[in-house]
Amino acid sequence: MKESLNGKLQLSEGYLAFVADDAKSCNFVLPLYTVRRVERINSGTHNFALSILNWHQMKLILQINGHKVTFEKFCNTIRDNLKNQVRYMKNLRSFLSTCFSEALLVDPKKDISTGGLGLIFGFPGDVKKLRDRYKTKLWIEYLQTNGRNLTLVKVPYFSKLVRVGLPNKLRGEIWELCSGAIFLRFVNDGMYEKLQKDNAGKVSLSTEEIEKDLNRSLPEYPAYQTKEGINTLRRVLTAYSWKDPELGYCQAMNIVASAILIYMSEEQAFWTLSVLCDRLIPGYYSTSMYGAILDQIIFEHYVQNKMPLLYEHFQNVDVQLSVACLPWFLSLYINSMPLLFAFRVLDCFFMEGPRVLFQIGLEIFLINSAILKINGDELLTITDDGQFIHVLKKYFSTLDQPAHPNNKNQKIREITKFNELMMVAFKEFSNITTESVIELRKTHQFKVIHNIESFTKRGQIRNLKDTSKFSKNDISIIYDKFYNAQFYGKQKSVRNDSRMDLNTFYRFLGSISSWAKLDDENLTKENGSPRDNQGRRLVGYEFIHKLFIHFDQSQSGGLTLQDVICGLGKIIFGDLMSRIELFFNLHDSDLDGYLFKEEILQMSESFLFIFRNRNDDGHLGSVSNFIRNAFEYTDSHNLRMSLPSFRMVVLADGYLEEFFDSGFASSFQFIEPTEERSKGLGREIFNALMSDGMRLAEKFGKRINHAKPKSHIPSSPDQNNSSNSNRNDMTSHVQSLESSNNNAESNYNDSSSLMPRNNSQDSFISVESQKSSKMQRNESPVSFGSDEEDDGLMQEVDRLLSEFSIDENGKKLTFFL
After folding, report:
1. CATH number of the domain within which 414 lies
2. Which of 280, 308, 341 is the last residue of a domain?
3. What are the boundaries of the region Disordered (predicted)?
């Protein structure tokens, strides 16, 4: 091919990309590890020119307009980047041996050893009727002229070849190439096998769901009636669930994966599925399917504008387009039309799809519109959803029939309904652009997110078995607080399900009670116990951990919304005696019905932790009295205190009695600030964006911070088509987002450690027990005298606790005031 084209050239660390001014004329993405030689040449029409020879001996001439300084900078950059990519060239031969196009150009009749299930169980359709051999011949001519696999150049003839249908053996490679998955597979060599090896034998919620759907995946195809086909599908879906545990697995993924496995090897299908879920149709296979629902709104918008009579009729008879159309989008038509035609749709989908990161296949939308256009007259007669579905199913079942059987022209009679469908999609609706779809998504996305969250919230609250006497408003606030804590704590969470782990519970409890706000900066763990940077035990974390265990009735290590509501309900709607018993049980670590010396001291620490932010110092005297009276009324032989004795000690102190009677329950406030109400919108979308941002930051942050360009592995062209400066800007933007998220997290983590007062030496407080015949009751727990009296109480508490300090293997349990 000798043709001059004007366009834009972009260079990244791993790729050289070109797009003609008329994007349909020519475009290519050339990995730098496929470049054999770059030379400067003299050009009669341009000041600067480069000759690039790629791996397949195809020469590209780049004539560059611009200043000499710019050209020199470009040359120096491409030289340095080429040096960094040389080490990847050693993998090229083995990788290209997995590409059918290599064998096709050597010997078209030679059988290939690697590929999809179709090589073993046969491909759908009649090879002769599909004219597979003739299509293969056309592709051989194209690949010989325009490169192949990693070095292929797309010219207008490429799209024509794709639209008439791909040859069976070449289809998987073209899908992989168009989607960009081929580049991911090369730079992540061995990752698929590693995922399988590292997670062999592991079980998760996703793997359990996968097992349920395996036998429902294209049962009409012979491979999925055998163990070989089922095992192949299981490995691909399971590997993806471990690669992206946040998404894991969702129904309909099995349909798409089973379809592409007919034409692709396991590794090819794995990376193509990754591109589908991450870039082409994001949000389709999430828990809420927000991406698919959003595109349904866009679809209805186009129907309303382009077929107003049909749309108005649907509105009048209350027919929902999504009843029939949502399954089309989720399964990419694989479940809606005969496989032979569904694969033709996928041919166009992969070719048109990967233009932007969050783009959804435009062709799928166009074909949907075309279906309604063709069947418009019949659809105007329907009166309910059932008739609507019946009309469309009837049409899909006749796609192989002639569209005009009575026409005198034989060529026209040979046009099938499917061919007519494709022509309508590409011609009559060609004015539907990617830009218009993206703009509509921006317009409607927050409405969709809000509706999904409202529906999900109502459903979860309705399904609660026990609301523990909470009002609807309180339940709503607890729900929001629960999932806000889940959202902001997800990066640190060790769980992949919807249960709340301990770290997130710290955040959640701090959002509804001021005494529970903790500061986890410089936090370390020693023998499982949270400690500060000086190794001192942090009492607040231990007390909240006790509450977490108490709330976790199923002992699963995580809390559901139901667990949290029941746990809080027992505290807030319980009575004086039940709260006293709760505190006793929280500190009875061995559950023997007694508190020993160590447990009594830990309870005193818990009291001081909860009371630490109170304006008065009445709690100091109360804790002092509690410790004194507790040890006075313990069993003198075993130094242990029973629940009745504990009740008597608490009720002997007015301050503690008031705390258990009302103070503890009233410390939980279910008030949602106005600014927090908007935080819940779009958690799932923003979480996906943040995950992408975190991955980008992790990938490029090291290069920016440490300036080690040689350490970079090239990524797919979708990520690398921008200039280096643009990617630096993106990295900065991602870091800014991360910083913003951290600032938001800090709202939940106000100062929580019990800091030393007056900068004095931290000390552990204990109590000295002296038997007396009468318990001392603090009659006026809140009212205290001068500052000197307050200091005296501090000293008394300090003296009492230090007397009974606990030394375990020479280590003191420290607590600071």
Report:
1. 1.10.472.80
2. 280
3. 706-791
Buried residues in 20-53 as b, exposed as e (16+ CB within 10 A): beeeeebbbbbbbbbbeebeeeeeeeeebbbebe
Taking the model in full, what pTM does it have? 0.66
Of the pLDDT bands very low, low, confident and very high (cuts 50, 70, 90), residue 731 is very low
Q: Are 419 and 402 in contact (CB under 8 A)?
A: no
pLDDT in tens, 695-717: 544 554 544 444 444 333 344 44
What tens digit of pLDDT does each residue of 123-132 get? Answer: 998 888 889 9
Residue 772: count other Cβ atoms within 10 Å of its Cβ: 10
What is the band of 25 on the pLDDT scale with cuts at 50, 70, 90?
Answer: confident
Q: How many domains is the chain partitioned into structurally?
A: 3
> Which range of residues forms the domain containing residue 86?
5-109+727-775
* β-bridge mates for residue 416, sequence order: 402
Question: The CATH number of the domain where 203 resides is what?
Answer: 1.10.8.270
pLDDT single digits (tens) 566-586: 999 999 999 999 999 999 999
Look at residues 280, 301, 333 and tell me which one is the last residue of a structural domain: 280
* β partners of residue 594: 642
pLDDT reported for residue 41: 85
The set of long-range contacts for 806-810, using a CB threshold of 8 Å and a minimum separation of 24, is 806/597, 806/598, 806/601
Q: How buried is 669 (Cβ within 10 angstroms: 0-12 exposed, 13-18 middle, 19+ buried)?
A: exposed
* Short-list 714, 591, 689, CA closest to 89: 714
Which whole-number Å values give the CA distances from 695 to 448, 690, 691, 734, in the listed order?
26, 8, 6, 9
In a domain, 658, yes or no: no
